[in-house]
Design brief:
Blueprint: H1 7-21, H2 28-35, H3 39-45, H4 49-71, H5 79-90, H6 96-110, H7 116-132, H8 139-163, H9 165-175
Helix pairs in contact: 1-2, 1-4, 2-3, 4-5, 4-7, 5-8, 5-9, 6-7, 7-8, 8-9
Length: 178
């Protein structure tokens, strides 16, 4: 028996739920309602809520990396240059929901909430690895420079979430000065 909805459709519905209601509101029932199907179909593709949350965060990360790929060419000389190239893309309004979800996942991880406490280090490692590939620095410095870029971006995301986009833009301008 085939399913009326594909895994991709269920994942897209889950991403909509997270964007509209927040990561903390992610549930099989909400995703099923958003997809116009039953909980059982959601569970078929994502047997545990942890699987669903991990897939949504991975999907959001892939979307952001795709948006960044053109703006962040390889061979940048240091973390400030990387953030200077990335922040204008990341600050676009169409990415706000993804970043709210990311900041929420980090907050839930800091509170020790499952599955986010286990997922957050994987998210960090994924971003560090992706950014390290875009730096033209000695191998011994590459991961540290990428980690510094993530630290700057994460700080800017917190500023944007709490103080608004204009405050984050002002902070980005200071942080990325040569």
């Amino acid at each position: 028996m085939g399913h009326k909805h594909s895994r991709e459709q269920i994942l897209a519905a889950a991403a909509r739920v997270v964007a509209d209601e927040g990561l903390h509101r992610l549930s099989f029932g909400r995703v099923a309602a958003a997809a116009g199907t039953s909980d059982r179909v959601v569970v078929y593709y994502f047997p545990r809520k942890d699987d669903l949350a991990a897939a949504v965060l991975a999907e959001l990360g892939e979307r952001l990396q795709a948006a960044l790929a053109a703006a962040v060419p390889d061979a940048l000389p240091h973390h400030r240059a990387l953030v200077a190239a990335a922040w204008p893309v990341l600050a676009r309004p169409e990415h706000a929901a993804a970043f709210r979800s990311y900041v929420e996942a980090l907050g839930l991880a800091a509170a020790g909430a499952a599955p986010y406490a286990d997922l957050a280090p994987l998210l960090l490692e994924g971003w560090v690895g992706w950014l390290a590939d875009r730096l033209d620095v000695p191998d011994a410095q590459r991961r540290d420079e990428a980690l510094a870029a993530v630290a700057l971006v994460d700080g800017l995301l917190v500023v944007a979430t709490v103080g608004g986009p204009e405050a984050a833009a002002r902070a980005a301008a200071v942080l990325t000065r040569p």
